[in-house]
Write a structure and sequence with these properties.
mainly alpha; 22 helices; transport; cell membrane; transmembrane
């Protein structure tokens, strides 16, 4: 085992524990334990906010997958990855500000709380919660499996040991530290990703002689690598698809959008909106372009996904290589901790409290959230130790399906008063079903684009049609979402039973 490489990675794991401890201490100061556990008491400043949003959105695929695709098929995939650059602006701007205002007015805590209050439908609540639990658990397993496999090949540490360390550390700091622990560790992991990307970019570009040498070298090996659409098939419809999928629709993913409810004030939000695109550009361009550099240095690589780790090992000193290799590992951890909390909230607040024990106290919810998060970590660990053969098919459907199903009822629910529960149910089911058919059985339904794009269009059509066919939202919903705080309080006063003297 390369101890000089492994030790910095172990050190990164070790730093997560004191960060979680700080988060636990801060969480205890909040009166509302549930809000503190799932939202950090809505106290995030700009830097923690932007790093937790970006680190949650940038999975291991941003680092390992994109560079591998760029190596194999050309710079079209670098452009594809760059479509994530506006994701922070859209997550915090399109969803964030409106979402946060509504959340504070109505004391919303979880992703599903929004759907429950906006559509007043048990069916919408149950459907949203179950979909998130199934698909996000599958995605978490894939993150652990992918990250552990890469690090196993680099460090020589046994795969099962790595998965146990992954799941154990993430489950512990997330379960006992809650949202603040996830946000603080996301920020630390985001800094690792940022500095790691910059360091690798400088060292490797120097080694090959600059950008012009990379371009000349790749063109000499295969001219199609610098041609669009080229072998990658990255034509205009595909560019539009990636722009929509990774730029726009990413904002609707539960583990990303729930971050929009957590910022301290408008100043924190506005600063994050300015900084976010620059940091995401380093993540995507910096690591994606490594695939093209790797094509020049290793033209005969057998496994494209191993090009980035190989570049790191070969061109950086051992300790620095370990620190940079921590970036994809940090991406795994930051994505999974966010998902654990979203799934925990769906199980505890939205399903158990919502349908089984509605009188559950604030303290009981917080305690149940801790143990549920820990249990989710154990489930993910067990599945990752022996992942089922069909897992990849579920994963392929998970993110695209959730985007196709959730984007329309979330965004139009925020901005369009006419949207109703029937539209939410039809668009959620219709979007995911269309995506499943287009991605796996009837490719023609995609019309030459990514399946998620046409699935979202289909979801939109269903939502709008249902809005005019089904009943209008109640007056109560209109007041809660578009009324003033005074109007909301007046409505609540009217619904309270009279106090007899």
């Amino acid at each position: 085992m390369r101890w000089d490489v492994a030790l910095p990675i172990m050190l990164m794991f070790a730093t997560m524990i004191p960060l979680a401890y700080v988060a636990i201490r801060r969480s205890r100061k909040h009166d509302n334990k549930t809000s503190s556990y799932y939202l950090g008491g809505r106290t995030l400043g700009p830097w923690v906010l932007i790093f937790t949003v970006l680190a949650s959105a940038a999975s291991a695929g941003t680092f390992i997958g994109t560079s591998g695709l760029a190596y194999a098929q050309g710079y079209g995939w670098v452009w594809g990855a760059m479509m994530q650059v506006p994701s922070a602006v859209l997550a915090l701007g399109l969803v964030g500000k409106k979402y946060a205002i509504v959340a504070r007015k109505l004391n919303l805590i979880t992703f599903t709380d929004f759907f429950k209050e906006r559509y007043e439908s048990r069916g919408v609540t149950v459907l949203t919660s179950i979909c998130m639990v199934i698909f996000l658990v599958a995605y978490m397993v894939a993150q652990f499996v992918g990250g552990a496999r890469v690090l196993e090949s680099i460090t020589g540490i046994n795969y099962f040991v790595l998965v146990i360390i992954f799941a154990g550390v993430v489950a512990l700091y997330t379960a006992f530290g809650g949202f603040l622990a996830a946000a603080f560790t996301d920020a630390a992991q985001g800094v690792i990703m940022l500095l790691g990307g910059v360091a690798l970019w400088i060292v490797v570009l120097t080694a090959v002689g600059g950008v012009s040498e990379v371009e000349a070298g790749t063109k000499a090996l295969d001219g199609q690598l610098y041609v669009l659409p080229g072998d990658s098939g990255f034509d205009l419809p595909m560019m539009i698809s990636y722009a929509v999928m990774f730029g726009l629709l990413l904002a609707a993913l539960p583990h990303v959008s729930v971050r929009a409810m957590s910022y301290r004030n408008s100043a924190a939000l506005h600063k994050a909106l300015w900084v976010g695109p620059a940091i995401m550009a380093v993540f995507t361009l910096g690591f994606g372009a490594m695939g093209l550099i790797g094509r020049v240095l290793y033209p005969e690589a057998e496994l494209a996904d191993m090009v980035l780790p190989t570049l790191i090992i070969d061109h950086l000193p051992g300790p620095l290589a370990g620190a940079v290799l921590a970036a994809p590992l940090a991406a795994v951890m930051s994505t999974v901790d966010s998902m654990i909390l979203v799934v925990s909230a769906a199980l505890v607040r939205d399903l158990y409290r919502g349908f089984i024990k509605p009188d559950m106290s604030d303290a009981a919810q917080s305690k149940a959230g801790t143990w549920t998060s820990l249990a989710i970590g154990v489930v993910v660990l067990v599945l990752a130790l022996n992942p089922p053969d069909f897992l990849q098919h579920i994963i392929n459907f998970a993110i695209g399906g959730l985007e196709a199903g959730l984007f329309v009822p979330l965004i139009l629910g925020l901005y369009w008063k006419r949207g109703n529960a029937l539209g939410a149910i039809l668009s959620l089911l219709g979007g995911m079903l269309y995506y499943l058919l287009a991605a796996n059985f009837i490719p023609a339904l995609s019309l030459g684009m990514m399946p998620v794009l046409m699935a979202t269009v289909f979801s939109l059509v269903l939502y709008v049609l249902a809005a005019f066919i089904g009943p209008r939202p109640s007056h109560r919903v209109i007041v809660k979402f578009w009324g003033t705080q005074k109007a909301i309080e007046a409505m609540r006063a009217e619904t309270q039973p009279a106090v007899r003297g």
